[in-house]
């Protein structure tokens, strides 16, 4: 007898598991059982598992009987005339929804031509085996599997026209591409998704060659003329939000220009952009330290006397100012209320982002790289017909990564641009490469996509033919302006006295084990003396009991709390974090005794 499990719960046994599964599936196809019910038999464990719970991933497949697809020519004609719909096919049992379990027992054919008697199902479209963003990669079946998924992930980080009502939204940390374009080489998924309404890249000319060593290790060389004409230009938006909070005792925050009597008053210069209501005006150009929303709060701690006399208690300053490294233009200001009825002030800042050294670009094939140099247009190599590439892409990124689709897209993009049409690059169902080459040859270009190019600086002709074509390139949201960070000295944490963490807090840059090794290898080991003392401190230590002593500032002497004033106390240089762990050990009733030795 074979055990039967329904949603992982044992419900009974059956004699003939194969017949039992077959019956369940036929009942489901007749509409007597829900279409999301899945059943499969596991040979190894001799178990029948039936799944009906939510949260499973199911996908549609066409049912095959005796090597013939149940989806006939008649069905397709009816679908084209809108006489039947997808749900009618499901009701007729032509389409099955399979989960990962039932798929284990299925034998799925890729195309109708491949069908043989043993097949149980047929793919609706070969496109169905990849996800949504992966289906946007043109000629994806020519790529290595890993690169295909990387190309898919890269597209999710691209800057584009993300939504049409961006002007009225307060989105956190968003980018908007100024001149987005629909790709010349598209796929079925582009048309299905109405990609022309939310594109996220631009069609540009790419030459595959090296340029004076500037495109080593995946970096790309950009034509400055293209950038000046608007390539890759985008705007970065981020909001600043301040709320009038209510406190116990009827006290409330107040958005206004703070008075000079307020505790923590900044300077008049910091408040220069605020209008009478304490809020900044649109189109003000602001930078770090400038106040954009003026606000005062009631004092944090009220003494018993102050509770009866609130007028005398001074308010404290709690304005919202731009943090370290922030700058931009005030885009728009809105006043509203939140769910609790508190007044809410929202200010949106914008800053224009022009491509600069360190910004990240990618093709749709996982070939990502950062800008290493912006070359003046007159120095860029040019073709015999006077075409100057927008990007010079390194040829070393191709052999080891095997992204053949990257190369085919260059050729297809060139053909599409010259013939004024869109090229279909749908995965497993794309236009034939040979046909594209013949079309290119017919337009007077070399069929292998290469052209004679000339050095932009000397005017000499390159001895090698250069592979050049059109391609859809994406600018990614990882921009150097959001990441650049340096510090000499700055704020430290209260507990450990070590530098704060993160760019927003003007934090320190951590130097790890490996960085230490590079300093030593470079012959600058003494530099480590200053690198590794971010929390250096001097503490008095008792020489008898080995505990940290106390320094009396008034009498300018140190004494030991255990051994008294007669004990010998020495000043020792240690890390403050070490002093902290000694205190932690004492709280655990552990005696951390320090044995001091003379410094010889």
List the helices and strands and how they pair.
Elements: E1 2-6, E2 9-14, H1 17-29, E3 38-42, E4 47-51, E5 59-65, E6 68-69, H2 73-80, H3 86-91, E7 95-98, H4 100-103, E8 108-109, E9 121-123, H5 145-156, E10 174-177, E11 185-186, H6 188-192, E12 202-208, E13 220-223, H7 224-228, E14 234-243, E15 254-255, E16 285-287, E17 291-293, E18 295-297, E19 316-317, E20 320-321, E21 327-337, E22 343-353, E23 360-362, E24 368-375, E25 382-383, E26 391-393, H8 404-419, E27 423-424, H9 433-442, E28 450-451, E29 453-454, E30 466-475, H10 480-483, H11 513-521, H12 527-531, E31 536-542, E32 550-552, E33 557-559, E34 569-575, H13 576-587
Parallel strand pairs: 1-4, 8-9, 11-27, 12-26, 13-24
Antiparallel strand pairs: 1-2, 3-4, 5-6, 5-7, 5-9, 10-14, 12-30, 13-26, 14-22, 15-18, 16-21, 17-20, 18-19, 21-22, 23-24, 23-30, 25-29, 28-30, 31-34, 32-33
Helix pairs in contact: 8-9
């Amino acid at each position: 007898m074979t055990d039967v499990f329904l949603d992982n719960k044992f419900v009974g046994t059956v004699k003939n598991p194969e017949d039992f599964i077959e019956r369940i599936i036929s009942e489901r196809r007749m509409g007597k059982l829900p279409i999301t019910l899945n059943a499969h038999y596991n040979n190894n464990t001799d178990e029948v598992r039936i799944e009906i719970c939510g949260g499973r991933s199911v996908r549609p497949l066409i049912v095959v009987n005796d090597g013939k697809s149940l989806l006939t020519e008649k069905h397709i004609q009816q679908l084209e005339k809108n006489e039947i719909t997808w749900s009618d096919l499901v009701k007729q049992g032509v389409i099955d929804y399979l989960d990962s379990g039932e798929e284990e027992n299925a034998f799925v054919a890729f195309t109708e031509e491949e069908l043989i008697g043993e097949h149980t199902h047929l793919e609706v479209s070969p496109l169905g085996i990849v996800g949504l963003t992966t289906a946007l990669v043109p000629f994806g079946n020519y790529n290595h599997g890993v690169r295909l998924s990387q190309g898919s992930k890269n597209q999710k980080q691209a800057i584009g026209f993300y939504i049409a009502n961006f002007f009225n939204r307060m989105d956190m940390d968003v980018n908007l591409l100024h001149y987005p374009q629909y790709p010349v080489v598209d796929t079925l998924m582009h048309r299905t998704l109405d990609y022309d309404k939310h594109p996220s890249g631009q069609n540009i000319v790419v030459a595959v060659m090296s340029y004076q060593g500037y495109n080593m290790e995946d970096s790309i060389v950009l034509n400055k003329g293209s950038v000046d004409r608007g390539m890759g230009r985008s705007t970065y938006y981020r909001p600043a939000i301040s709320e009038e909070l209510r406190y116990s005792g009827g006290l409330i925050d107040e958005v206004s220009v703070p008075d000079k009597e307020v505790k923590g008053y900044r300077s008049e210069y910091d408040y220069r952009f605020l209008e009478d209501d304490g809020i900044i005006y649109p189109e003000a150009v602001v930078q770090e330290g400038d106040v954009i929303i003026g606000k005062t709060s009631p004092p944090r701690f009220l003494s018993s006397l102050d509770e009866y006399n609130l007028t005398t208690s001074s308010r404290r300053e709690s304005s919202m100012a731009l943090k370290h490294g922030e700058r931009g233009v005030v885009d728009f200001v809105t006043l509203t209320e939140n769910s609790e009825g508190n007044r809410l002030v929202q200010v949106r800042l914008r800053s224009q982002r022009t491509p600069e050294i360190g910004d990240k670009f990618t093709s749709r094939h996982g070939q990502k790289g950062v800008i290493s140099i912006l070359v003046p247009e007159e120095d860029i190599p040019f073709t015999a017909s006077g075409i100057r590439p927008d990007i010079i892409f390194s040829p070393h990124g191709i052999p080891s990564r095997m992204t053949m689709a990257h190369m085919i897209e260059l050729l297809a993009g060139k053909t599409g641009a010259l013939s004024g049409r869109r090229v279909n690059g749908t995965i497993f169902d794309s236009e034939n490469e040979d046909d594209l080459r013949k079309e290119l040859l017919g337009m007077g270009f070399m069929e292998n996509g290469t052209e004679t190019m000339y050095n932009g600086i000397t005017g000499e002709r390159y001895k090698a033919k250069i592979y050049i074509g059109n391609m859809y390139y994406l600018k990614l949201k990882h921009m150097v302006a959001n990441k650049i960070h340096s510090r000499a000295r700055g704020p430290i944490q209260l507990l450990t006295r070590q530098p704060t963490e993160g760019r927003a807090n003007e934090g320190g840059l951590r130097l790890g084990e490996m960085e230490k090794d590079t300093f030593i290898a470079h012959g600058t080991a003494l530099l480590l003396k200053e690198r590794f003392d971010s929390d250096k401190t001097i503490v008095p230590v008792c020489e008898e009991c080995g505990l940290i002593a106390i320094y009396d500032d008034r009498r300018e002497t140190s004494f030991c709390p255990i051994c008294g004033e007669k004990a010998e106390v020495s000043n020792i240089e240690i890390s403050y974090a070490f002093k902290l762990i000694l205190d932690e050990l004492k709280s655990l009733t552990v005696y951390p005794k320090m044995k001091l030795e003379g410094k010889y």
